[in-house]
Amino acid sequence: MGVVEMKDVRVLFVCLGNICRSPTAQGVFEAQVRQAGLAKQIKIDSAGTSDWHIGAAPDSRTVKAAKKRDYDLSSLRGRQALPEDFQHFDYILAMDADNLAELNKIKPRNYSGHLGLFLDFAKAFEESNVPDPYYGGSQGFDLVLDLIENAGEGLLEHIRSHASQ
Ligand code: 4NP
Description:
Shape: globular
Order of helices and strands: EHEHHEHEH
Largest sheet: 4 strands, parallel
Bound molecules: 4-nitrophenyl phosphate
């Protein structure tokens, strides 16, 4: 078997604030993609549906929980999801149904990429939504990581099987 060439793929993860769940998804998926040797082909970003934390670093509890699993999120900064994002990203993946509804409001009619829930790619969990950990305890941040690590594996498998050319 020869080397399988892959098209470039761009992925955007979206939550409400872009300081807890979607930066976690960005950091985890970047690590999974790097480990798979696909960092050149798969580009990753994250954003929030709100404008509340533009320019802000991820929540310190998010950074700490991620660091325990060797993900460094400290250099990420918050930004808002914009209609232009639909011109740039092949996959726009929402952390929960509320964020997905907000994204559907700004989605151009001609968007031909995949807008959906990130956890649809998780195989080991039944949940559809990554629970918002912002107002809860530290175990919420660990659950966010568990869900995201599993969905990231599923997403990578999906992209590898759909993006070869
Ligand atoms: P995220 O979590 O959507 O996962 O980034 C939140 C962050 C901030 C707020 C809510 C959720 N907030 O109310 O400021």
